Amino acid sequence: MCNFDGRLVAWLDRELAEDEAARVERHVKMCAECRKRADAYERASAAFNAYCTALSAAKAHPRTLYPKLAAVGAVAAVLALAFFAHYPRTQIAQPPMSAVEATRTAHVGPATASAPPHQLSPIKASSFRNVHRQTVAAARPGQDADLLPAGPTVQIMIPAEAVLPPGAAPAGENFVVDVRIAPDGSAQGIRLRTQLTGLEGRHP
Amino acid sequence: MSGDSVPLALSLSRLGTNLREATTLYQELREPLVRYLVCLGMSFDEAQDVVQDAFVSLHRHLSSGGSRENIRAWLFRVAHNRARNCQRSYERRFSAPLDSEAQAIADEASPERAVLQKEKARRLGNAIRTLTVAERECLLLRAAGLRYREIGEILQMPTSSVSDRVERAIRKLAEKCDV
């Protein structure tokens, strides 16, 4: 084995000082054994790097262990979705309701616990066609978040201290989040507004 | 009611220079960092969490006026140390991570090359198993494109030790798997 063998990888990695790199290069040109070793080291480096890349890709996209079971599960999920999407239209009566009953607000956090229950602009009764009247009328303020109807905008009040570090927001300032619940149950049109405490019950 | 409506998502343009710098580094280094941690033995999700934490630390570091010199090695060191802290049984979980995935890697190959790839991956996995933890870490950081000096900073060892370990590890791989 040549004396240069211990520096071949560092030479390939361009980690040697200029003069030492030149000496190793001159030797490798003359020594067939070191040339062969350098080639083998280069191939080993490339194989290791490729192995790491493949390993990372394999972990990023893990294979499905039971493809047949997964397919059955997917079909069952689609059937369940189709059933629940169809069920309310055929089973729930849809009487009209008054504007007063339809007006309501969802409160979040202790700072809004004492706020009056009717804070929003009245929502038209026609917006509640898909909601059972008795269910909405019997709802307590704390349960409102579970009974969000499809369509109308819902406002959620969040005390500033719940989302910001202490002292980051002026005292008495809250946030109001406007959310529209789409027919598929997803939250749409999210907007954030600031609101001063004490003005919650007033409407422009 | 008071206050104007603003979008919930904040615009990057409102954030400071430090965050933009961290964002640029994130785009450049996220993938190599995740790959390094995954090859150390973490799951892909764990690795992503550690990398996110590392970049939060980077933002704090830059915001507090920390040094910008060799920030790449700094990030890898933070991620490396966090990964170690995340693993209760570091030695057990990280000592043989690469070879355990040889089968999965071989199966990823196209059918006509599957047999060859499988055998090659198996031999390479066996060879990697013979490396010490330090040799393996040096090779992984080298595969991420770091210089020996940076690897030494991350693993807290002299550059000459890094050079010796890399040389020894590559020699072992070349001899054992004859690629």
Largest sheet of chain A: 4 strands, mixed
> How big a fraction of the residues of chain B is strand?
under 5%
Order of helices and strands of chain B: EHHHHHHHHH
Radius of gyration of chain B: 20 Å
Describe the biggest sheet of chain B? Answer: none
Overview of the molecule:
The complex is a heterodimer of chains A (204) and B (179). In chain A, 42% of the residues lie in helices and 14% in strands. Chain A has 204 residues and is an alpha+beta fold. Chain A has three domains: 5-60; 64-92; 99-196, no CATH class. The longest helix of chain A is centred in the first third of the chain and has 29 residues, at 32-60. Chain A is elongated and about 80 Å long. Chain A starts with 7 loop residues before the first helix and ends in an 8-residue tail after the last strand. Mean pLDDT of chain A is 63; it is low at 90-150 and 199-204. With 179 residues, chain B is mostly helical. Chain B has nine helices and one strand, in the order βααααααααα. In chain B, helix 1 (17-40) packs antiparallel against helix 2, helix 2 (44-63) packs across helix 3 (71-86) and helix 6 packs across helix 9. The N and C termini of chain B lie far apart (72 Å). Mean pLDDT of chain B is 78; it is low at 1-15. Classes of the chains: A alpha+beta (204), B mainly alpha (179). Chains A and B meet through helix 1, helix 3 and strand 4 of A and strand 1, helix 1, helix 5, helix 6 and helix 7 of B.
